[in-house]
UniProtKB/TrEMBL annotation:
It comes from Oceanobacillus halophilus. GO terms for cellular component: plasma membrane. The keyword Endoplasmic reticulum does not apply. The chain crosses the membrane at residues 51-74, 86-103, 115-137, 144-164, 170-187. It is a multi-pass membrane protein. The gene is plsY. GO terms for biological process: phospholipid biosynthetic process. It holds the Pfam family G3P_acyltransf. Its EC number is 2.3.1.275. Belongs to the PlsY family. InterPro entries: G3P_acylTferase_PlsY. This is Glycerol-3-phosphate acyltransferase. Catalyzes the transfer of an acyl group from acyl-phosphate (acyl-PO(4)) to glycerol-3-phosphate (G3P) to form lysophosphatidic acid (LPA). This enzyme utilizes acyl-phosphate as fatty acyl donor, but not acyl-CoA or acyl-ACP.
Amino acid sequence: MYFLIVSLVGYLFGCLHGSQLVGKLKKIDIKNSGVKNAGASNTTILLGWKYGVFVAIIDIFKATLAILLVLYILNENGITGDLQTLLIYITLLFVIIGHNYPITMKFSGGKGTASLVGALLAIDWKVAVIGIGILLLFTIATDYLVIGVLFMYVSFLITTAVFFGVEPAIVVLFLSVLSFMKHLENYKRIMKKQETRLSSMYKKKIS
């Protein structure tokens, strides 16, 4: 029953898309424009960094709030220890599934990066510091956000296995594969030198 509850909470929170709100405000279909992704990075490419930050804040903290709500429910019902940890990771899984495949967008959403960052903040400060640090380091070093994301997932997998054990790590492994598949087009564009660089995103003027 608890697995069903946390899955539902995660999915519903995941379906809340910042890009949908901005798209309606600016009268643009963000999902089907630019690099065709309903996330903060594509919003930045299309509309500038201020709108990108707004979308990122929504997509980040919906994951944080979902996990905090689940933690409250579990604590109120005496669910602690390894079971609580696994249920938190299941919540994260369904937040990202909801973000990537939202019923509100005909099951075609974003790629889940911002929501993962929000989840890290709620799961454990050590995991968050390492994961976000790796994200920033590799993104800045390569000038490609997608490379930073790849290494963030690698670090998340390792830190989860070290701090929380095998079962939560299996959840992260599944998320890592999902993220890799979602970013395949980005990797192909990098090989062709067609991928948008981070530095060029933040030079975009607000229309």
